[in-house]
Design brief:
Elements (H helix, E strand, L loop, with lengths): L1 H12 L10 E4 L5 H12 L6 E3 L27 H11 L16 H15 L5 E4 L6 H11 L4 E4 L16 H21 L1
Parallel strand pairs: 1-2, 1-3, 3-4
Amino acid sequence: MYEEFIKETSKFIFAENKPEKADIIFVPGNGYSQMAERAAQLYAKKYAPFVLPSGKYSISAGRFGGVLTGQKRYNGEYQTEWEFLKDVLMKNGVPADAVLKEDQATFTWENAKFSRKVTDQAGINIRKAIICCKNYHARRALMYYQRAYPDAEFRVCPCCVDGITRDNWTESERGIKEVLAEVNRIVTQFSLMM
């Protein structure tokens, strides 16, 4: 029974799809360069004409927590997650006019909800979208963006930023803690939204 729980939890939390042509690539706010780098790779391969990084800073920190990976290459004086993610995108070949702006979100639901306002104001009809996020944040990000865009189809193209994967999360105390914290967030945050 325990093995089945681990298997189903892994399958649920670590949502992942192959990319497909889409209307936009979303990057929820963070301080890791890998998600925006992945979005830039997909943009370069013409998977979508726009990239929308989203984020002011973490609500719990009350400020941008800083660059967590890629500090040598991405070393600007960033005030928001959006400024950081835009810099990553542009340094990886995404032109400024393809990068949309959402710099007020302080947690994942706001990333999705405020991104919807941006795309609506820009007149972009989102039928299919790609989300580039942290691998064990994938299910929660997907659930929020699906809630904000109920008629859209999503492809999740996540990144591993800290060594915790679908295959090894049960092998370390940190992995177990991070993944089970995501399960808890999904249960508590979505129950508050019902």
